[in-house]
């Protein structure tokens, strides 16, 4: 993954820290970490959604900054769902970002200006396609797919 730190540093930092994990906890006392988190919504030819670290079903989540944080930017790369591999924040409306994210499997221009784009897949897109194969039109995956482990491989400064 390449994160767009230059465009949306707050969003990129929250995602990176949830990948890294650490000692911080959610208000419920759960680890503030993506490890073990399921992809609860997978719709072929659209997107793969995960990151609900509190409930695992798409109704919860928590960011590095608390339960929710504001949208940063919809300009430049941070505003365009231009094609497969785009990494974007899932939300319940403006300024409701938490830990949930989604990966586009196609261009999704109707999401521009509604969801903050904060990164893209630069290597291993075949894994995204494998996850997509577990999807259904209603979004309920045919198999359980979870983040077995995660972290930060390299930070670009």
From TrEMBL:
UniProt keyword annotation of Isomerase present: yes
Domain PPIase cyclophilin-type: 1-152
PROSITE patterns tied to this protein: CSA_PPIASE_1 (PS00170), CSA_PPIASE_2 (PS50072)
Biological process (GO), any one: protein folding
Enzyme Commission no: 5.2.1.8
Keywords carried by this UniProt record: Isomerase, Rotamase
Catalytic activity as recorded in UniProt: [protein]-peptidylproline (omega=180) = [protein]-peptidylproline (omega=0)
GO annotations of cellular component type: cytoplasm
InterPro entries in the record: Cyclophilin-like_dom_sf, Cyclophilin-type_PPIase, Cyclophilin-type_PPIase_CS, Cyclophilin-type_PPIase_dom
GO MF term set: cyclosporin A binding; peptidyl-prolyl cis-trans isomerase activity
UniProt enzyme class: isomerase
Record family assignment: Belongs to the cyclophilin-type PPIase family.
Function as written in the Swiss-Prot or TrEMBL entry: PPIases accelerate the folding of proteins. It catalyzes the cis-trans isomerization of proline imidic peptide bonds in oligopeptides.
Protein name as catalogued: Peptidyl-prolyl cis-trans isomerase
Source species: Angomonas deanei
């Amino acid at each position: 993954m390449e994160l767009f730190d230059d465009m949306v540093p707050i969003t990129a930092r929250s995602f990176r820290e949830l990948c890294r994990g650490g000692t911080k906890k959610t208000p419920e006392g759960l680890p503030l970490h993506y490890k073990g988190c399921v992809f609860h919504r997978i719709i072929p030819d659209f997107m793969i959604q995960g990151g609900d670290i509190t409930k695992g079903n798409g109704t919860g989540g928590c960011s590095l900054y608390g339960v929710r944080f504001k949208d940063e930017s919809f300009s430049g790369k941070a505003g365009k769902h231009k094609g497969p591999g785009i990494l974007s924040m899932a939300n319940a409306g403006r300024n409701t970002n938490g830990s949930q994210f989604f990966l586009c499997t196609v261009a999704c221009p109707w999401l521009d200006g509604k969801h903050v784009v904060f990164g893209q897949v630069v290597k291993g897109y075949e894994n995204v396609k494998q996850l997509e194969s577990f999807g259904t039109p209603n979004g309920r995956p045919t198999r359980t797919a979870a983040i077995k482990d995660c972290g930060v491989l390299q930070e670009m400064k």
